[in-house]
Amino acid sequence: MKPTLQLKLSQQIKLTPQLQQSIRLLQLSTLELSQEIERIMQENPLLEWDNCSDYRDVQPGNNSELLMSDSSDFQDDAAKEVISVENMTTTVMSQNNESDWKQDHDFYNGSREDEYELPQLAAKPISLREHLNVQISQSQISERDKSIVGLLIDSLNDDGYLVQDLQELVEILPPQLEIDMDDMHIALAYLQHLDPSGVGARNLRECLMLQLQLQPVETPYRDQALLLVNEYLEILASRNFGQIKKLLSCDDDCLRSVQQLITHLNPRPGAIFNSEDVRYIVPDVIVKKMNGIWVANLNLNAIPRLSVNRLYANILNQRHHDSAHGLASQLSEAKWLIKNIHQRFSTILSVSSAIVERQQQFFKYGAVAMRPLVLREIADNLNLHESTVSRVTTQKFMHTPRGIFELKYFFGSHVATNTGGVCSATAIRELIKQLVKTENPQKPLSDSRISKILGQQDIVVARRTVAKYRESMQIPPTNLRKSF
């Protein structure tokens, strides 16, 4: 059999690296985009922050494809092409500011007349263990007892509870230390008298008991609260107030005072020392009212501002031999990144504008006026794929006069009404929230009752659906909302 050559034509769909980057940037949040740009800039010297240009000309357009321009567009003179976008990190921008450098230079040379103000650094918050160890170091107990108490402190969790059994701690200690259970109990008793009250407890009951015991004896209803926590805490959690009144032999006023005394205790005494970094949301879009119509605009503070380095671009234009091949590749990558960022925010603006156009009543009346909306509706209107709209609306936020919302918040399924119309699931959730907020605390509304009230407004919602929406909003059931 003779070997032969055959010519075969076929079509394949492949994503170019530039298109892959465009899709990846589209699904990143603002913070993740900033981190991605920082990473790329460290690898590509052709990219730099642009402090001069503005990015106010981005307009929503027909984004039928994520990328339409051909790569030949990038063969122009890079020194003449500077595409800029706003930079959300002003600290990075100031690094290239000549005037800032001159002021610092004058200060170190002693030529500044004004007093130089050092930046105010936030003090590191003290931890629970540090707070307790300071109290131990100032106590009058022996060094041996201090060491045992320090061992118990190291076994506390972030809420201040002792999560490890005392017997287990004794067994893991070296025998030559001669530490027994009596030593552990003495150390635990000392630990439980430290600030904050309730620290060192082994469960919720003990935590509340410690805090009640440290209150003055003359505190009203202290004894009833101690009895209720020690003997009937589970009944209190189920809010079976009728049974509690019988067990304590008290009336409504007494039970109300006891309940108030217990609810003012801290079930997590160590939580006040937990220092977690607060991450603020930077909205991608700002909605404002213009000529009586709500309009979406890009948040210029959320958009990074980049340009191609002119110096390197000019050097590349003057050299046409093989040594400049790597630099030319980086130049192409830099311009593709700038274009993809421009495309990203153009797509976000297009989708946001379409959302605002359809949810005008929400901005006027609130969540109760939210209309049903699905991704397919926006995708068909903008000639985009539904997956693209999904990427755009994930981890992208819109600042409105009613608060900051993720773009996905404006989408939701619909429920039919008796009049033949539809009602958004978001609007139904808001109605349920308002009904629970205005209910009588002594006679809270059941899911069936809420379903009937909505039915009187021509909104057909089953009891199971009401329960599902209520649980999604973390609203407790009827028995846990009841109070005196």
From TrEMBL:
<keyword id="KW-0238">DNA-binding</keyword>
<dbReference type="GO" id="GO:0001216">
    <property type="term" value="F:DNA-binding transcription activator activity"/>
</dbReference>
<dbReference type="GO" id="GO:0006352">
    <property type="term" value="P:DNA-templated transcription initiation"/>
</dbReference>
<dbReference type="Pfam" id="PF04552">
    <property type="entry name" value="Sigma54_DBD"/>
</dbReference>
<dbReference type="GO" id="GO:0000428">
    <property type="term" value="C:DNA-directed RNA polymerase complex"/>
</dbReference>
<dbReference type="InterPro" id="IPR007046">
    <property type="entry name" value="RNA_pol_sigma_54_core-bd"/>
</dbReference>
<keyword id="KW-0804">Transcription</keyword>
<dbReference type="Pfam" id="PF04963">
    <property type="entry name" value="Sigma54_CBD"/>
</dbReference>
<feature type="domain" description="RNA polymerase sigma factor 54 DNA-binding">
    <location>
        <begin position="327"/>
        <end position="482"/>
    </location>
</feature>
<keyword id="KW-0731">Sigma factor</keyword>
<comment type="similarity">
    <text>Belongs to the sigma-54 factor family.</text>
</comment>
<dbReference type="GO" id="GO:0016987">
    <property type="term" value="F:sigma factor activity"/>
</dbReference>
<dbReference type="InterPro" id="IPR038709">
    <property type="entry name" value="RpoN_core-bd_sf"/>
</dbReference>
<comment type="function">
    <text>Sigma factors are initiation factors that promote the attachment of RNA polymerase to specific initiation sites and are then released.</text>
</comment>
<dbReference type="InterPro" id="IPR007634">
    <property type="entry name" value="RNA_pol_sigma_54_DNA-bd"/>
</dbReference>
<dbReference type="GO" id="GO:0016779">
    <property type="term" value="F:nucleotidyltransferase activity"/>
</dbReference>
<dbReference type="Pfam" id="PF00309">
    <property type="entry name" value="Sigma54_AID"/>
</dbReference>
<dbReference type="GO" id="GO:0003677">
    <property type="term" value="F:DNA binding"/>
</dbReference>
<feature type="domain" description="RNA polymerase sigma factor 54 core-binding">
    <location>
        <begin position="120"/>
        <end position="312"/>
    </location>
</feature>
<dbReference type="InterPro" id="IPR000394">
    <property type="entry name" value="RNA_pol_sigma_54"/>
</dbReference>
<protein>
    <recommendedName>
        <fullName>RNA polymerase sigma-54 factor</fullName>
    </recommendedName>
</protein>
<keyword id="KW-0805">Transcription regulation</keyword>
<keyword id="KW-0240">DNA-directed RNA polymerase</keyword>
<keyword id="KW-0808">Transferase</keyword>
<keyword id="KW-0548">Nucleotidyltransferase</keyword>
